[in-house]
Amino acid sequence: MTIHKEGFKILTGVVVALTAINLIMRYFYPGNQQMLWGVFIASAILFLSIASFFRKPRRVMFLHENYVLAPADGRIVAIEETVEEEYFKDRRILVSVFMSPSNVHVNWNPIGGIVKYVKYHAGKNLVAWHPKSSLDNERNTVVIDDNGNEILIRQIAGFLARRIVHYMDVGQEVAQGKELGFIKFGSRVDLFLPIDSVIHVDLRQKVKGGQSILAQIP
């Protein structure tokens, strides 16, 4: 387990701020050891809590041709037919993975192929399980084409999240299981699959990014 590169700047700022707070408390209350220890312990807990958002596991990916892997760690919160309005503009199967604050927040490519579409949308910060979060929240959409089978991946920021990071460019060839991006502090990832895909997960099932099989595409 290591710290993801997206966390370095934030964690450096946290260390500087907490160090300053502890030095100020020591300056004004040098004799109050109980208070100083309390501030130090609270600072350590806060730092470790924030660092946990940016942990990056060493993970063996289970690559499967014609299968769609989970793009993130989390729990399945939606499996339904819907109309995808941004790119396909037709009916697709939506599978949503909700990432709680305790989950790893790295996102992985569910399939390999050629990146056909990338678009970032600024937006609101509704809770990630809100029905309108997929359309109203800060989000980033990526479409990957695997030999004619196109999969849309939508990273959606949640209530705590303020920045979505992606590593995709149109025309880029990407491999299944490689990093797609990162969502800071929480959220959800939606997958829009071909309508005749065979779903391999159930509602509320826990999945692991790059390891759990979500669906089989025709």
Percent helix, as a range, is: 10-25%
Give the distance, in angstroms, between the N- and C-terminal Cα atoms: 36 Å
Q: How do the strands line up in the largest sheet?
A: 11-7-8-9-13-5-4-15
Give the SSE order as H and E letters.
Answer: EHHEEEEEEHEEEEEEEEE
Using the alpha-carbon principal axes, give the shape: elongated
Helix/strand class: alpha+beta
Q: How many H/I helical runs?
A: 3
Specify the biggest β-sheet. 8 strands, antiparallel
Low-confidence stretches: none
Strands, total number: 16
Provide the gyration radius in Å.
20 Å
> Proportion of β residues?
35-45%
Mean pLDDT: 87
Explain what you see.
This protein is of the alpha+beta class and about 220 residues long. The chain is built from 3 helices and 16 strands. The protein has an 8-stranded antiparallel sheet with strand order 11-7-8-9-13-5-4-15. Helix 1 packs antiparallel against helix 2 (about 35-55). It is elongated. The protein starts with a strand and ends with a strand. The mean pLDDT is about 85.
